[in-house]
Here is the input.
Amino acid sequence: AIERTLSIIKPDAVAKNVIGQIYSRFEGAGLKIVAARMTQLSREQAEGFYAAHKERGFFKDLVDFMVSGPVMIQALEGENAVAVHRDLMGATDPKKADKGTIRADFADSIDANAVHGSDAVDAAAIEIAYFFSK
Ligand code: CMP
Here is the structure.
C-alpha cells in the first residue's frame, strides 16, 4: 500500500553536509519527499517528539543531541514507505547496521545515528502531524 513515513536527518548528518546524499537514497528507493522543513528543535519539541522514551536512561542525552544543531525533517510517501525507509536507514546502532545503509555510511554512534524514521504506519501518522499541517 502507499504509505507515508516521517524522516529526520539529525544534527550530526546535517553538520556532515550529507542531506543531499541521503535525499538521493530516498528518491532512488522510490520514496517521494512530500513535505520538508529545516529547523532547530526546541527542547520542548524534542521531548514531546520522543515522549515514548521519557523513562529510558538515554532520554536526556537523546534530547540534548537533537537540540544541538539544525535538523531536516521530511514526510516521505511511497509503496511500503515505512519499511522501505527503515531498510535504507539500517539498525539503530550503526555498529550493527548492514553495509550500504545510511547509518552504516554516515553515523558514528547510537546517539549520533544520522537519521530517525517512524517504526509503524500508525506512529508515522502521529509523527507527521507533530511537524506538518495537513
Ligand atoms: P531514533 O530512531 O531517533 O529513536 C530514538 C533514539 O534514541 C534512537 O534513534 C537512538 O539515536 C537513541 N538511542 C540511544 N540509546 C538507545 C538505545 N539503547 N536504544 C534505542 N535507542 C537509543
